[in-house]
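Hi V.,

You were right to ask for the full record rather than a summary. Here it is.
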Amino acid sequence: MDQLEIKLRCSKFVFGKVLPTLLVGVFFSGCGSSKAETLNPPSSSAINSSHSTTSTTTSRSTIVSPPSTHGSIVKEPIVGLIDMGVQTPYSENLPFPPINLSPLNSYAGSFAGVVINESWSQLEPSNGVYDWAPLDQSLANVQIWNSDHPNSPLAVKLRIFAGHGAPSWVVSESGPTVAIEVHGVVEGVGQWWTTPFRDAWSTFQHALAARYDSNPLIREVSVSSCTSSTGEPFVISGAIVSRRNLAAAGWTIALQEQCLSQALADYSGWHQTLLTFAFNPLPTQQGPDQAFTNQIMLQCVDSYKSGGPKCAVGNNDVSANASLSASGPTYSEITTLTANPSNDTQVYFQTTPLLTCSTIYTALKYHASSVEVWSPNGRYRGFSAFSPSTLSLWNKALAGGSSLGC
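Predicted structure:
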């Protein structure tokens, strides 16, 4: 496909339909550009009123949008199966390439969405210098796929890796990297709990929201504040070497709790796009602290009612035996939240690499509207272990279009 055809298709189609020129400009404002842009950190007034930016001295207190009545309608959540995308570049400290949707060509109609993964370092290589080209290219690839499959378009969930994916300039400002062990591999991560790191991340998230919140293709954004080596804010390496190194760098449970308590404020620029927040019992020296996790889960559920972003609760380790796992108390709290009619509780899950029908059945039991499933990756067959017809059945069950028996 030549560059002219890509540009034409990128600018004309959204979910297979021709759009007015004005909406096209909003949808892919950077579709044909590969240049980095330099922006001053946004002020709260600029974020609330438009997508423009203004030169100002920023801190967490000035970039957070205050609670207010909502002037925008939140886009519909993704309902069905979501391809969580390839994770290999992240684990190998490589930039994410533009999303490749060819593995889904034989699965049209089996998925409702796809995750676009990016590292923070890819999108803000220098302080205040944003390179949106990697994300724009991935969005363009999804849109081309949608124009080729107008009867089964894909929505996008955006996941930006923060701690392990922090730019070098942030690491320099917040302190040296901390070596922690993840699945037997020692990795260096930025000091995500420090004020310089948190300020820089919040500023970045507001710039990201200013550019993409109105994009109709991006329906969900994953909360990555306070994360270390995964996209799960409540997951912290329990290895002895990790805890020793974190303590030496100044990390404490109290600082982690403070960071988690302000995570939604980092995303307060997302007025139209649903947030998905992965929860687990917070690990402490005294054992898992589900009570604190429950506080933040309720904060997520109540966020929209209090003028903040719309937020869905979830867990990134759903399995057939989820209630018996270490995250069992989190699933119990999800049951409590969804049972309360005064709550508008949105639920999502991500599976383990081992996907089964019983996994999807469990997700339905806990009222999930979407489930992220693993892509084929190395020794993991992921969703390719199942036929398109099987995945389509699961996809329809999540959408409420059919029952599921396993």
